[in-house]
Design brief:
Blueprint (H helix, E strand, L loop, with lengths): L1 E2 L1 E4 L2 E9 L17 H30 L5 H10 L2 H14 L3 H17 L4 H21 L6 H10 L5 E5 L4 H6 L7 E4 L7 H8 L4 E3 L4 H4 L5 E5 L4 E4 L3 H22 L15 E6 L2 H9 L5 E5 L1 H5 L7 H13 L5 E5 L27 H6 L1 H14 L4 E6 L5 H21 L8 E6 L2 H5 L1 H5 L4 E4 L1 H9 L17 H17 L3 E3 L7 H9 L4 E4 L4 H8 L4 H11 L5 H16 L9
Parallel strand pairs: 3-4, 4-5, 5-6, 9-10, 9-16, 10-11, 11-12, 12-13, 13-14, 14-15
Antiparallel strand pairs: 1-8, 2-6, 3-7, 7-8
Helix pairs in contact: 1-2, 1-3, 1-5, 2-5, 3-4, 4-5, 13-15, 15-16, 21-22, 21-23, 21-24
């Protein structure tokens, strides 16, 4: 039994499938016959040529979209791909050790990694990142006709086998998005917390998941039976028959309850005394938009546009973005979408923005701060969003706003962009509202000044909590500090809600708190009426709110604001949850 962080509730019994790290497996594959050597070298050379051609096209497109300096990293990658030393090392391993081209590439990459690991300077660490990108690009051309490990796992499910549980060191943003609609039943990772990309992916699809399970990759082999308890954060490896029978029973109960809750999709979202609320969905892609439709969401409260960029081979141009946003809008509930502008940086990086050796990237050059240096990237996205705005009800949300000066800067760029579109005769949505994502404590403290310059507010509780407590939410050593049932966060939120109420400014909370039953009781009691969450949680929150009156929730909130510790708040709200609906406790994390 292993203990981690329960990040997506539910129980699943299934078969483990390991997803190797981006460095690739160290297990070497040899050619079946030495006669295959010339063909294998030719296959490698072809992959190099295709990678070089791809990079050349990237240089041209990125230079056109973002300027020559932004394309510099791809020029460097093109030089590495054509490096005679790299090619000679791979040729030698194929000829002398009869390795496959893929194994030879991985051996070369691990050799580079060993050398650069001994060098402490940031410059060399960044250089290794570039080398890894180049080698992985060549690999992608080598294996383009080979089934990937995740597709392999999905195939096992489709072929009638046990449910598949992905086990990985971590799941990166681009990997998370590549999972698409594959029938994965559970996720376990060594790294990450409740707001990691693996966690957000799991919750959006209703998949039980546990993160922060140290050493699990050394304990599990593909094919091992596993049990994942996404509520209590427990992972059982190779359980006995008695444990599997007991957990299968709980698994059936959990999914039966989920099925019953989904039946409320066409019912209005309101409290027991008739107070109306809006339950919106957080989405990343078209599959999430369809999921939001199925559960009866009122609209999309947060569309994370960065995942288009993370899964795109280069910078998406205006037409590509416009078409993508249009499709999202047409397939979203009530054709109502709040589109967040790019929230890149931290662990969500793309090569055309360059490498920066930041000691703490989550508090560094990210999100709207990038636009201060690269306004062309921002303007291209704003143009695409405004153009998509004529196909439905669209709002534009600016993330990571810290100061009033930043907000005035982006507001001015949007104003200029509207004027340019008019002069060009390009049709766009004239009524697209603009809003601020409050996730930096400085913005929450100075909320009155922010409200004078924005149409609406959306609170990103994930980042707001981690910045408030100065703890990295994906670091298992301190993730426990990123506690949504915290006296500090509730007091900050009360001040923001009160300010919005005084000015009549619409406010939504789109962080993970919005989909967790116990925090929702307090948020509703504090006056919040717009909640945006992973689609899978909407039926649960609708059922919860229909079981509580406004007066009850206000009493809960008043009491919580008098408490001084997270444990006191947790104990109090757990008791209230049990009184209101004990069955819904299953959908909350401990």
């Amino acid at each position: 039994m292993h203990k981690g962080i329960g990040v997506s509730p539910g129980i699943v019994v299934g078969v483990a499938h390991r997803v190797e790290s981006v460095l690739g497996s160290l297990e070497q594959q040899s050619l079946a016959n030495p006669s295959e050597i010339p063909a294998e070298i030719e296959r490698f050379d072809q992959a190099v040529a295709e990678s070089a051609a791809e990079l050349d096209s990237f240089v041209q497109k990125v230079a056109q979209e973002l300027g020559s300096s932004a394309a510099e990293i791809f020029r460097g990658h093109a030089q590495m791909v054509n490096d005679p030393s790299l090619q000679a090392q791979v040729h030698s391993l194929i000829e002398d050790q009869h390795l496959t081209a893929l194994s030879a590439l991985q051996v070369v990459m691990h050799g580079y990694a060993a050398v650069f690991a001994r060098l402490q300077q940031d410059l060399f660490r960044e250089r290794m990142t570039d080398i890894r990108d180049v080698i992985l690009r060549i690999e992608s051309h080598l294996v383009r006709k080979v089934v990937t490990p995740i597709e392999e796992a999905a195939g096992a499910t489709r072929n009638g086998g046990e449910s598949v549980i992905l086990v990985a060191h971590e799941i990166l943003p681009s990997q998370a998005m590549s999972l698409g609609d594959l029938p994965i039943a559970g996720i376990v990772t060594e790294l990450g917390g409740s707001t990691s990309h693996a966690a957000i992916l799991a919750r959006s699809r209703g998949i039980p998941a546990v993160s922060g399970v140290e050493g699990i990759m050394s304990e599990v082999q593909s094919g091992d039976m596993m049990i994942v308890d996404g509520r209590d954060g427990m992972v059982l490896v190779r359980p006995d028959q008695e444990a599997m029978s007991a957990y299968r029973k709980v698994q059936r109960e959990f999914f039966n309850l989920k099925d019953r809750l989904i039946a409320n999709r066409d019912l209005p979202a309101k409290s027991a005394d008739g107070a109306h609320v809006e339950l919106l969905a957080n989405i990343n892609n078209l599959a999430d938009a369809h999921a939001a439709q199925k559960v009866g969401a009122a609209g999309v409260g947060l569309f994370r546009t960065e995942y288009l960029f993370l899964t795109h081979h280069d910078v998406p141009d205006e037409e590509e973005q416009y078409e993508f946003y249009r499709q999202i809008l047409l397939n979203s509930p009530n054709q109502t979408v709040t589109i967040r502008t790019l929230d890149l940086g931290g662990d969500k990086t793309v090569p055309y923005l360059g490498r920066r050796g930041e000691p703490n990237p989550f508090m560094g050059w990210r999100s709207t701060r990038i636009f201060l240096e690269n306004s062309k990237l921002f303007v291209t996205q704003v143009r695409a969003i405004l153009r998509a705005g004529r196909h439905g009800k669209v709002a534009m949300l600016f993330p990571m706003i810290t100061t009033l000066e930043e907000l005035l800067f982006v507001n001015n760029l949007v104003k200029e962009t509207r004027g340019n579109l008019r002069r060009e005769g390009v049709a766009f949505g004239e009524d697209v509202k603009t809003g601020v994502m409050v996730e930096v404590p400085a913005a929450a403290v100075c909320i009155d000044a922010i409200l004078r310059e924005t149409d609406f507010i959306s609170i990103g509780s994930n980042d707001l909590i981690q910045y408030l407590v100065a703890a990295d939410r994906d670091n298992p050593k301190v993730a426990q500090l990123c506690e949504p049932l915290s006296p500090a966060i509730f007091r900050v939120l009360r001040n923001v809600f009160d300010a919005c109420q005084r000015t009549g400014t619409p406010v939504t909370l789109c962080g993970e708190m919005a989909g967790q039953p116990r925090p929702v009781l307090v948020l509703f009691g504090l006056g919040l009426r717009r909640f945006s969450m992973s689609p899978g949680f909407i039926p649960t929150i609708k059922a919860l709110l229909s079981s509580v009156t406004t007066a009850q929730a206000e009493r809960f909130a008043h009491h919580v604001l008098q408490l001084n510790t997270s444990e006191e708040i947790r104990s109090y709200l757990t008791a209230r949850m049990h009184e209101i609906s004990s069955s819904l406790e299953m959908f909350d994390t401990p």
